[in-house]
Structure formats: structure tokens, C-alpha cells
Amino acid sequence: MNFLIINNPAQLPWQTIVYDSLVFVLFVSAVINAVIEFRRGVRMYAFVLVAALFYGVVLELAGMATLNMYQQGDFLVMLNFPVLPLFEGTTAMPLYVTLFYPVIFSVGFKVIEALGIATRWKAAVAGGMFMILLDAPYIIEGNLRHVVWWTWRADFSLFQYWLGWPLVDMAWQAVWGMVFYYLMLGARSRVDGAVGERWTAGRAFGVEAPVRAVSVLVIGTLLLSPLTIWTFLVGRQWPFMVVLVTVFAVITISALRSATPPSGRPDGLLSAWIALYVVAFGAMIIANVMRDGTVSLYVVVQALGLVGVVAMATFQLWARRVPAPETTHEDVVSDALP
């Protein structure tokens, strides 16, 4: 059997083709941007890409080899992992999955930069909140039975759903995303700091990026363990998730109130990424409304996710700025006196 499977695009839902194309375009543009910035002496975007790629591949392969929580749907290009001994009995992986994590974390990192939150852990929490918003239209769309990007395992004990969205997945995006951004922000001074304090390229990309990627898996698992324990002791996950999302939202809003985003227009590349994301999923949301003949709750949640994504990505446009104090004549005279 071949490791690479090519499916006929004419036999796939149009939503699948659109999403495949979206991820590919975002990934290629993120790589091009990282290369351009690297040549200018800014290595952070490349660092995020490498760490996210390593994180995603290890996460997905480890998950397939152990938990195997879902059956993948068909995409244009599939990686046929079941032909490998360790992954017998698992599912072929769409090629887009390997590009998915570099894409979402590249987008998220640029959003965090644009927010202007000075405190590292608060910026990371805001990043986790952004991941929930970014994930909402995608994770709901993928489970729709006329789309079928995947099928969740019915017998997986940790899965409890809201609009087809496993609550543990929502927690995972928030918590693990937060950890990823926290570790990336912590590395920034050694990736793009003063020349004498910078890591060498070999250490940064060959050691530090993979180590931080694996650290996200370890730390994220520990931080997610309270939800696991809650599930087995209490049962219903929704009270836990209400508290978790509320905490993330409150911290994010509080951090934004004191943030100092850069002035001027938002980053052009980030704006293009967000526009493509909104157009792609906006078309899917409209199609869902037309198919259902009504505005269902899941469609509302998808739309709210897009609204939240746009709001955070354009924060510097509508953020309230604290005006600089005016200099009075008395101040000038006072400063001139000995």
C-alpha cells in the first residue's frame, strides 16, 4: 500500500476543498514571511513555525498511536499512516493536519503581538482565548455530517459535547495554546535579543524549538489533568468549562484594558490571513443556514467565533488609548528653573 493517497477533488465536499486550500495558502505565506523576516534579522516567526510544526507532528502521531480519538475524513491528500507498523489500525491523516499547527500558532502569535499586552502570562492567556475563538467555526464545521472532516469516537470516555464540539477539545485549545504562547514569548529575548545574548541558529531551531514543543505537551497535560479528574469524579464537564472559559475571558478583557497596542494600521499579512479565514468560514456558515433553512445555535456560535477573531486581530484599531499628558506653560517654566 502507498503512504500517499490522492483523492478525487470532485468527490469531496466543497467545504473540504476550501479548507484544504485555506490552510495551504496560510502555511505558504507564513513560511515566506518567516524567511523574509529571518533575512532581516528577525528569527522569531521562523522559531514559532518550527516549534509549532514539531509540536503538531509529535502530538498527532502520539495521539494516533495511543488514544486514537477520532476517524479522519477524506481530504485531497492523505498520509496513509496505517501502513506503518506502529500505526496499524489507526486512520490516514490529511496532509493539512501537519500544516495546521504552524498556521494557527503563526496567526495567534501575530495577534498577541498586535494586542500589546505587557505581562507575559496575561498575553499567553489572551492567546489561549484567541485559540477558542479561532477553533469555534472549524471544530463545529468539521463534525457536521454533510462535511465530515472527522468522526469522534463514540466510546471515548472524556468526550462530552456542546454543539458537536468536545468540551475537552475546547479546554485543550485554551490551555495548551496558552502554554505554547507563554514558552514562545519567554524565548523571544534569546531568539531576537541583543546579539551577544542570542542563541545560535543551531541551538534555537535544533534544540530550543523542539524542547519547547515537547514541553507544551508535558505541561499542557498536567494543566489539563484537573478536567480529567473532574470528569471521572463529578461527571458533567460543562460547569468546569464555564468556569475555565470565564476565567480566560476575564483575564483577557482585563489585560486588554491596560494594553498598549502599536499605533497605526494592523499588520498587513495578519489582516490578509484573517480576511481569508473569515471569507472561507463565512461562506460555510451561510451554506449551513441555507441548508438548515434557519439560523441554528451552532451557526451562531460559529459566527461569534469569527467576530471574536476579527475583534482581537483588529484591537489596535478600536482600542481606547490613554492620551499623553499635556505639557503646560508652567511645566516648561518649572523644567527650565535650576
Automatic annotation (TrEMBL):
UniProt entry keywords in alphabetical sequence: Membrane, Transmembrane, Transmembrane helix
Residues passing through the membrane, by range: 12-32, 44-70, 90-109, 121-140, 160-183, 213-232, 238-256, 268-289, 295-315
Protein name per its UniProtKB record: Carotenoid biosynthesis protein
